């Protein structure tokens, strides 16, 4: 069995969504495609695919194996181009994970510019408000807004952001303005489930300096799984919400939200590009880092952490 051929056929089937579509793409009979995948499964002694009537579904083992196949085949292609002296430009597929609002506001314009500059690179941009496991989910790079604890990752800082507390003028007129974090227990709060941004979770919020950080319990009336949804709810008068300054800025400047308890704000959070530590950074990743870093820093510097000036005490 030619395992490299089997890997290529498996990836074609996964990407195309079916064995028959992979066969048409590769110019192979369906029987040949099915046999090669079955031979891989027999060799590995595991099930890789669940063959449904309409689509293929990867098993847990299959997802891990497919991610490894992509890396192996890309490394082989890179080695061949390098050996032949043909590796003149970065190539391949690059996957980046970023929160939804940060992706739309800052990352997508940079990605679009990067793709024009590097026509041999394809990109997958995953916009989601959760912490992605880069290694498990085959992600090359993530833009995250929190302090990095995992020493197996490399983090390159692109900027700093505030975590601001906001509510609508109508809500504050009806319920009063909280003067101390403890006052939030008598207010309606809009919380963010499984927050990707620390200190904005569903049961407690952080206040104070790094040396005297205080965790304050909150009683939420509304729990959402998107920081944008929390901002929209606050604008609609649903209660007090915490959000990053890059999201709050527009609403505050337009008068739709008012910042609260600024003197109790927790420390600034770093936004960093994060990727796995590795002996040799792939050329496609190095190209994106070199291209994106100065542009992201320029965009974020244009909306600095203090974009919402703290009121004088």
Automatic annotation (TrEMBL):
- Residue span(s) of domain HTH lysR-type: 1-59
Which region is the signal sequence? Answer: none
Q: Which SUPFAM superfamilies match?
A: Periplasmic binding protein-like II, Winged helix' DNA-binding domain
GO BP terms: DNA-templated transcription
Keyword DNA repair set for record:
no
UniProt key word Transcription regulation: yes
Q: Which GO terms describe its molecular function?
A: DNA-binding transcription factor activity; sequence-specific DNA binding
UniProt lists the family membership as follows: Belongs to the LysR transcriptional regulatory family.
State the name under which the record lists this protein.
Answer: DNA-binding transcriptional regulator, LysR family
Organism per entry: Neomesorhizobium albiziae
